[in-house]
Every structure is written in C-alpha cells, then in structure tokens.
Write a structure and sequence with these properties.
The chain has 353 residues and is α+β, with helices and mostly antiparallel strands. The chain is 37% helix and 11% strand. The longest helix is centred in the middle third of the chain and has 19 residues. The termini are far apart. 44% of the residues are buried. It comes from Vicia faba (Broad bean). This is Protein kinase domain-containing protein.
Length: 353
C-alpha cells in the first residue's frame, strides 16, 4: 500500500490543472470561506462544483488528449466551449480494487482544504468528479500554461527569467502564503519547491498543492531531482515549515542553484552550511542574469537567513516576509497577480450554466 501512497503523491505533485464543461449541474461540497473582489467575486459559485464524468469526457475529447501519465493515473487536456483550456487529473480505473477508506478520506480532505483557498497566485481548485460506475476520482484545477519555476531556472530550453520577473514571482508567492496562513484555521502547504510553482503567460507565480499523501519513500527523488528531505521540513504542514521552504526558494531564485545536494538529503544541514558562508550573496548571483540591483540582492540575502533559521520560533512570520519583500521590490499585491486569468472565464461559464 505504501507504493500506492507514493504514486498518488507523485502524480498530484506534477499536475497543474483547470476546469470542466458548460452543461454541469453543480452540487455544493462546502462554501468558499474567502473570496476575490470585483467581477470574479460576482461570478463565483458558492462552493466547489461536483462535475459529471460525461461532461469532462466531452471537454477532454473522449479522454483521448493525454498529456501525462503515471502508474496510477492520467492527466488529460481539454477545452471549454468558451475556448479556455483545461486539464483533468484522473485516478486510474485499476485502482478501484485497492482504493481504501484512507485514500478516500485523503481525497475528500484535499477537496475540503483547497476549497478554502481562493487566491490569484494559487492554482485554485474549481471542480471535482466522484462516481462509482465507472470508478472515477478526478480533481479539476485552473491551468497555468507556462511551465514551472524549476524549468525556467534550470532547463536551458525554457524561457530565461530576468531579475525583475524573478522578484515579481517571489513577491507573488509571499503574498499568497501570507493569505493562506491568515485563514482560520491556517492552510499550510504540504510541499513548496520550484517544481510546485507554476507560471502564467505573463510570468506570475501560481503556487500548487496537489499532493494528498504523507507517506513517502526517503530514497525517492522529487521532480526537481532532489530526494525527499527531512520529514520535519517537507511533510510538516506548519506555517513555519512553509517559511523555511520559501527561504530556500529565494536562494534558488537569486543564485540559480538547486539548493539540495543529491548526496545530502537534509534541509537542516543545507541551512546550517548556508548560514556559515562568509561570501556575500552578490558573489553567488546567477551568472545568467545580465543585470540586477546589488542592494536588493543583499536585502534578500538577509531575508533568506531569517527564513531558514534552524529554530522555527525565530523565523519571520509570512506577513513579515511579504512586507519586507514589498519594501525591497516596491511591488504591490495587485502588481504580482496574473493580468489575464482563464480562471475568471471558467468560473463565469459554470455559474451561468
């Protein structure tokens, strides 16, 4: 059964996704506890829509448009009648015989948790499908079409990110995490890395939290090439662990380096090593950056140290982190969100069906 858990964790981590079809009749799981102002607020349905398999099948061209696979599931790409692209993550039919009450509870808990989150720098859940004949468990998210932050930082074929866009991505993430930690109760991410941060066409950050299994194999490598790190850092879902992970991400954004050694799986060891470095951060800046502001680099370096303090009680809170980034970058919360979001059109179509 641990293999099933590991595979479930893997598939949901790599998927970033969207919405369903116009003819859906919705049933409410749980009301949104927060909202977005303006037109989007008016268009929102008051809960997470339960979608029909047949409607998702139409949107995904009879489930023929496969864009990703794993041993336990498939990712399909589809299109709404409005032209908005979608993707649907489906658990394999073969799992119906091994789908336990525990897995079902995790599936429902993920829906319940994500239904509380509604932020423009987050990959928002906007639908799900649950049917028995045939066995169907699907999660439907909005779609971020421009790859992951990891790809843009480390894959040569991906579009290069200059200094300004990198700061905009980091600041958008900070505002999103501040919002999530401010919910009642707080919502903390189970995994935060450059592989779980997706980008829109205008390079706005969209954080995802698509895993729903806590059981992992410590020898299994993440999508970004590193192994699972200490359970207190990755599997703890506390705001303090999110702050630590955010500090690691800031280091990766500034230096262009993967902060975890494949031979050293301990995040705490990495932090201790980093905090002992005497070399100024400006000497570690990503060599592919044509230009950057040295004063911003040094200010971000100090923020990183506060985020990765081994003592979680001494770490800055996310509201403090976002405020310091706002002072460094001069970027407001409105400046860092996607300018054109397909989420609005998807939700408008559902609400008017």
């Amino acid at each position: 059964m641990s293999i099933v858990y590991n595979e479930l964790n893997w598939i949901w981590l790599i998927l970033y996704i969207c919405m369903a079809s116009k003819t859906n009749k919705v049933s409410i799981v749980k009301p949104w506890t927060t909202g977005i102002s303006g037109q989007l607020q008016k268009a929102l349905v008051t809960g997470v829509p339960k979608l029909k398999r047949i409607d998702l099948e139409v949107a995904c061209e009879d489930f023929s448009n496969v864009i990703g696979k794993s041993p336990i599931g498939t990712l399909y790409k589809g299109t709404l009648s409005s032209g908005v692209e979608i993707a649907v993550a489906s658990v394999s039919l073969t799992l119906s015989k091994t789908w336990t009450k525990n897995l079902e509870a995790q599936f429902k808990n993920k829906i319940d948790t994500l239904s509380k989150v509604n932020h423009r720098n987050f990959v928002n859940l906007i639908g799900y499908c649950e049917e028995e004949e045939p066995f169907t468990r699907m999660l439907v998210f909005e779609y971020a079409p421009n790859g992951t932050l990891f790809e843009h930082l480390h894959v040569k074929e991906a579009e290069h990110l200059n200094w300004g866009p990198r700061l905009r991505i980091a600041t958008g993430m900070a505002y999103c995490l501040q919002y999530m930690h401010g919910l009642d109760p707080p919502v903390a991410l189970t995994n935060l890395s450059s592989s779980t941060v997706h980008l829109t066409d205008d390079h706005a950050a969209k954080i995802s939290d698509l895993s729903f299994s806590r059981e992992t194999d410590s020898s299994e490598k993440k999508p970004d090439g590193r192994k699972d790190i200490d359970i207190d850092m990755t599997q703890s879902t506390s705001p303090a662990s999110n702050v630590y992970s955010f500090g690691v991400l800031l280091f990766e954004i500034v230096t262009g380096r993967i902060p975890y050694s494949l031979d050293n799986s301990s995040a705490e060891n990495w932090a201790a090593h980093y905090l002992k470095w005497d070399k100024p951060m400006k000497e570690m800046v990503d060599a592919t950056l044509a230009s950057y502001q040295e004063n911003q680099v040094e200010q971000v370096a100090e923020l990183i140290k506060d985020c990765v303090d081994p003592d979680s009680e001494k770490r800055s809170r996310m509201n403090e982190v976002s405020e310091r980034l706002r002072e460094i970058t001069k970027m407001s919360s409105e400046f860092v969100v996607p300018k054109l979001s397909p989420l609005w059109w998807a939700e408008l179509e559902i609400s008017s069906a």
